[in-house]
Amino acid sequence: MSLNDDLATEETPAGPIRPVPAAGPAERVSTGFILWMALANFGVSMAYIVPLSFSLALRIQQLVPGHEEVLGYATGIAQAVFIVTAPLVGIWSDRTRSRLGRRRPFMVGGIALGMAGLVVIALAPNVPVLMVGWVVAMFGWSNTGSAIVFLQADLVPEEQRGRISGLTGLSAQVAPVLGIGIVSAFIKTSTFLVFFVPGAVGVTLTLLFVFLGKDPDSRLLALPADRISLKKVFASYAFNPRKYPDFGWNWFGRFAFFMGLYLNTTFGTFFYAQRLEVSVAEVGAIVAIVGLLGVVAAAAGALGGGWLSDKLQRRKLFVLVGAVLFAGGALIEANAYSLPVLVVGSVVMNLSLAAFGAVDGAIVMAILPDRAEAGRYMSVVQFAQKLPSAIAPLIAPLVITIGAVGSLKNYTLLYLVGGVFALLGGLIILLKVKSVR
Question: Is the pTM of this model over 0.90?
Answer without folding.
Answer: no
